[in-house]
């Protein structure tokens, strides 16, 4: 899409490209927004620098200001940074019984989140889950987990007084295997701040169960502290993911960005309240909007971009209706097809087009060679693309050679172009405005 958009900018923008000054001015505001959202200073600084390089020279969309454009670029970069390769809601819990270790500071929301995740696994994935509290320091902690378990209908390991966390972990592991559980979750004790005893204890437990997931639960409101906690836990224990709690509060969630930038670990879930169903899969778009706090600007730029796309589509359609369908249009169609899963995919989406797709395919259209067909068009001059009828033998030879293909390949492409051109004309004349529908889709 961005490729297509930048192509659109080239043709349609009057304001030209973002100057270094535009970018700098806009980024000053962005930096303030990031810091206000509790993004740590070094992370904010580095992020802004990265975006600066990226944004300078980019085209500005018609009807938005350079500043607005930068905000949109920043938003997209934020989403990019926050997004991991993995699906946040999908914990690695195959090979039962899979141990999940819950770690973090006291009061961060570990016990609550343990219950929430257990409920989710049970209800959405049909998993049989066992919960065990390793918090031997606060007498009420084990009862708290047992009560939550009863409330959500998930088993908890029977409480045995006088055991060490490692003893309990071993017992949970055994029970999980014997009882046919898919997952067992270990809710560890926290401290008010990081200390060596806590780390050692969690390390010992991890050594016993070899957790499939080690989820760090941190209070999303604590900003800088949360980042330090994440760094420390990751260094000492090795976390696999993060859960940010208290995101139902006023905080703007900058910790998410810092944490992601510092540890590189995915944010899995977001806690949005005390209730057992107040847990959501982490959504980068949403948090990015919240961190930046400039959602209206982002929406504005997106709308402007959409408008331009619509205008362009409209113009293209008008030309098609008049039977003007040149090689550039064909190339654009080919590129779009590549993105949409090939000819069959694109035709399959239009009512009554299945047969047409077959015809086009029979005419030598093969999804695998789209790339080569695009190369052929690229090998043509501007004039040739606009008027494919001028292509005689010598031109054809040159074009085919330029793309490393045979003239017969080019002839096939030209035949396909003629057929599509006819098809477009017919569709344009049709009463239903099918082409218009198709273009919108
Ligand atoms: P732990 O010490 O890490 O186990 O923390 P707890 O799970 O006991 O949670 C501490 C307090 O934070 C409890 O009162 C929870 O109800 C509350 N809490 C946990 N997660 C959230 C959340 O996402 N939003 C809000 N508003 N409160 C939460
Ligand atoms: Mg607890």
Automatic annotation (TrEMBL):
<dbReference type="Pfam" id="PF02881">
    <property type="entry name" value="SRP54_N"/>
</dbReference>
<dbReference type="InterPro" id="IPR003593">
    <property type="entry name" value="AAA+_ATPase"/>
</dbReference>
<feature type="binding site">
    <location>
        <begin position="104"/>
        <end position="111"/>
    </location>
    <ligand>
        <name>GTP</name>
    </ligand>
</feature>
<dbReference type="GO" id="GO:0005525">
    <property type="term" value="F:GTP binding"/>
</dbReference>
<dbReference type="GO" id="GO:0006614">
    <property type="term" value="P:SRP-dependent cotranslational protein targeting to membrane"/>
</dbReference>
<dbReference type="InterPro" id="IPR027417">
    <property type="entry name" value="P-loop_NTPase"/>
</dbReference>
<protein>
    <recommendedName>
        <fullName>Signal recognition particle protein</fullName>
        <ecNumber>3.6.5.4</ecNumber>
    </recommendedName>
</protein>
<dbReference type="InterPro" id="IPR013822">
    <property type="entry name" value="Signal_recog_particl_SRP54_hlx"/>
</dbReference>
<feature type="binding site">
    <location>
        <begin position="245"/>
        <end position="248"/>
    </location>
    <ligand>
        <name>GTP</name>
    </ligand>
</feature>
<dbReference type="InterPro" id="IPR004125">
    <property type="entry name" value="Signal_recog_particle_SRP54_M"/>
</dbReference>
<keyword id="KW-0733">Signal recognition particle</keyword>
<keyword id="KW-0963">Cytoplasm</keyword>
<keyword id="KW-0547">Nucleotide-binding</keyword>
<keyword id="KW-0687">Ribonucleoprotein</keyword>
<keyword id="KW-0378">Hydrolase</keyword>
<dbReference type="InterPro" id="IPR000897">
    <property type="entry name" value="SRP54_GTPase_dom"/>
</dbReference>
<comment type="subunit">
    <text>Part of the signal recognition particle protein translocation system, which is composed of SRP and FtsY. SRP is a ribonucleoprotein composed of Ffh and a 4.5S RNA molecule.</text>
</comment>
<keyword id="KW-0342">GTP-binding</keyword>
<feature type="binding site">
    <location>
        <begin position="187"/>
        <end position="191"/>
    </location>
    <ligand>
        <name>GTP</name>
    </ligand>
</feature>
<dbReference type="GO" id="GO:0005886">
    <property type="term" value="C:plasma membrane"/>
</dbReference>
<dbReference type="InterPro" id="IPR036891">
    <property type="entry name" value="Signal_recog_part_SRP54_M_sf"/>
</dbReference>
<dbReference type="Pfam" id="PF00448">
    <property type="entry name" value="SRP54"/>
</dbReference>
<dbReference type="InterPro" id="IPR042101">
    <property type="entry name" value="SRP54_N_sf"/>
</dbReference>
<dbReference type="InterPro" id="IPR022941">
    <property type="entry name" value="SRP54"/>
</dbReference>
<dbReference type="GO" id="GO:0008312">
    <property type="term" value="F:7S RNA binding"/>
</dbReference>
<dbReference type="GO" id="GO:0003924">
    <property type="term" value="F:GTPase activity"/>
</dbReference>
<dbReference type="InterPro" id="IPR004780">
    <property type="entry name" value="SRP"/>
</dbReference>
<dbReference type="Pfam" id="PF02978">
    <property type="entry name" value="SRP_SPB"/>
</dbReference>
<keyword id="KW-0694">RNA-binding</keyword>
<dbReference type="GO" id="GO:0048500">
    <property type="term" value="C:signal recognition particle"/>
</dbReference>
<comment type="function">
    <text>Involved in targeting and insertion of nascent membrane proteins into the cytoplasmic membrane. Binds to the hydrophobic signal sequence of the ribosome-nascent chain (RNC) as it emerges from the ribosomes. The SRP-RNC complex is then targeted to the cytoplasmic membrane where it interacts with the SRP receptor FtsY. Interaction with FtsY leads to the transfer of the RNC complex to the Sec translocase for insertion into the membrane, the hydrolysis of GTP by both Ffh and FtsY, and the dissociation of the SRP-FtsY complex into the individual components.</text>
</comment>
<comment type="similarity">
    <text>Belongs to the GTP-binding SRP family. SRP54 subfamily.</text>
</comment>
<feature type="domain" description="SRP54-type proteins GTP-binding">
    <location>
        <begin position="266"/>
        <end position="279"/>
    </location>
</feature>
